[in-house]
Automatic annotation (TrEMBL):
One of its GO terms (cellular component) is plasma membrane. The lineage of its organism: Eukaryota, Fungi, Dikarya, Ascomycota, Pezizomycotina. This is Major facilitator superfamily domain-containing protein. Coiled coil: none annotated. It comes from Calycina marina. InterPro entries: MFS, MFS_trans_sf, MFS_TsgA-like. It is found in: Cell inner membrane. Keywords: Cell membrane, Membrane, Transmembrane, Transmembrane helix.
Length: 467
């Protein structure tokens, strides 16, 4: 019992100085949380590959196969605005990491019998549980990376961590091309291979949950975030959540952008097999891996640009380029059309994490709740792919690209506002010039000792925690 008391997950709401961590002090927790970004990148990439795989092995339509995306991304608002956000506000980031990983592992185990009995509906239910787990992880990990360390590097930090998400999306299609598409439609091993993949995922995430439980990562409270907002002189932090209009616009932009991104990736294999002559699903899965590689490279390139250019300008350029390159894919076929999608994915790379970082600027004590609203925008991934699937069934996968194009245009309104409307622009710029966490001071060691003392007091005497 002593071990469990020492590692109590309860968190208070007093200021812990964790919002003033220097770059050096934040390296370990950032590296640990970055592993989570690879995990859901892998899961997301795996889902895109399974979308086509189930069309082949189970003989279902494009519209019905989008049920995978609907189950996966439809779970996000339930997590980010519901159970995960409640745990985040009452118990803290670490508890949500463990909760999300546990749900992820349970969903992966449930997927086993569903695949064994060729139950597409059952597998969608397992994906829904996995989506709740990943939605929980995103609810905590994105804001944690954003606030853990010097505020001026928040956009760079979250994009760098999200780059490992991109690596995960590369690995999954490569795995799919060699594991899922090597068997014929009637071969029982065509689905059996999927079972082993999900069993391996379950084992890994349960082990990772144990690592998080025993890892001493700093907890960042609402009081810490209020301190950041006050120190950067952002004067909107004290407004009630319902009047945080920038936040709501960011959430809407995230809904439109994520829906469009998921639609493009989910039907990439369909697009290539239809528009590029003599291309098999296995070959198209390898092309998808290449496109996701372009996505990962785009993130690293975006981080490099943000070192010299304000993140909001990089955001505007990248999202504008997405619109420019996806439009020709509607009419261009073969290698030309596929190249346009490669470029689209390259410039999609920084959009999601940058919306998270910019949308959370200046929320202060509303940071944890606000992050839930932005992550809830991921539900767009449950709405746009079915619309795409219906259009592709009626017309073609190429013509259906007009659907994500229109949603990208809607998301672009946020990029315009954050660059040209002072109400949006000023809070973003004040954080990029903040000195918090930038300089090593003589009191840093004393602050760390004070933080550890506060955390030790809350874990040894959990009843005194402010819940």
């Amino acid at each position: 019992m002593g071990v469990f008391k020492t590692y109590s997950l309860r968190a208070g709401n007093s200021e812990t100085k964790a919002a003033e961590l220097t770059l050096r002090q934040s390296i370990y927790p950032i590296c640990l949380v970055t592993i989570l970004f690879f995990l859901w990148g892998f899961s997301y990439g795996l889902l895109d590959t399974l979308n086509k795989h189930f069309q082949t092995t189970l003989g279902i339509s494009k519209a019905r196969s989008s049920g995978l995306q609907a189950a996966y991304f439809g779970a996000y608002p339930l997590a980010s605005l519901g159970h995960a956000n409640w745990i985040l506000r009452h118990y803290g980031y670490k508890a949500v990491f463990i909760w999300g990983l546990s749900l992820y592992g349970i969903g992966a185990l449930i997927a086993w019998p569903c695949i064994l009995h060729r139950s597409f509906g059952g597998f969608c239910a397992a994906i829904f549980i996995i989506g709740n787990g990943l939605g929980s992880l995103e609810t905590a990990a994105n804001p944690y990376i954003t606030v853990c360390g010097p505020p001026r590097y928040a956009e760079m930090r979250i994009n760098l961590s999200q780059a490992f998400n991109g690596i995960g999306t590369v690995v999954a299609p490569v795995l799919g091309s060699y594991v899922f598409f090597t068997k014929t439609q009637d071969d029982p091993a065509a689905l059996k291979n999927v079972q082993w993949v999900y069993l391996a995922i379950a084992i890994f995430v349960f082990v990772l949950a144990a690592v998080f439980y025993f890892s001493p990562i700093p907890e960042i409270t609402d009081a810490d975030m209020q301190f950041q907002a006050e120190e950067t002189h952002v004067d909107v932090a004290d407004l009630p959540l319902r009047k945080q209009y920038r936040l709501m616009h960011a959430s809407a932009a995230q809904f439109c952008y994520t829906g469009a991104q998921v639609a493009v990736a989910s039907y990439f294999i369909n697009y290539v097999t239809e528009t590029r002559p003599n291309t098999s699903s296995a070959a198209a899965a390898k092309f998808l891996a290449g496109a996701q590689g372009s996505f990962a490279i785009g993130r690293f390139a975006g981080v490099g640009l943000m070192r010299f250019i304000k993140p909001r300008w990089v955001f505007l350029f990248y999202l504008g380029a997405v619109i420019v390159f996806i439009a020709p894919s509607i009419t261009q076929k073969g290698n030309t059309g596929m190249t346009m999608l490669y470029l689209t994915l390259f410039f999609e790379s920084i959009i999601f994490p940058t919306i998270v970082a910019l949308g959370m600027r200046g929320l202060g004590k509303h940071t944890k709740q606000g992050s839930g609203w932005i992550i809830a925008g991921v539900a767009g991934g449950a709405v746009v792919p079915p619309i795409y699937g219906v259009t592709a069934d009626a017309q073609s996968s190429a013509i259906a690209m007009v659907i994500p194009l229109n949603f990208f245009l809607l998301a672009f309104t946020y990029a315009i506002c954050v660059n040209f409307v002072p109400y949006y622009r000023d809070p973003a710029d004040k954080f990029t010039t903040a000195d918090i966490g930038m300089h090593q001071t003589a009191s840093d060691e004393e602050n760390v000792r004070a933080t550890n003392a506060v955390l030790e007091q809350k874990t040894v005497h959990p009843k005194q925690a402010d819940i």
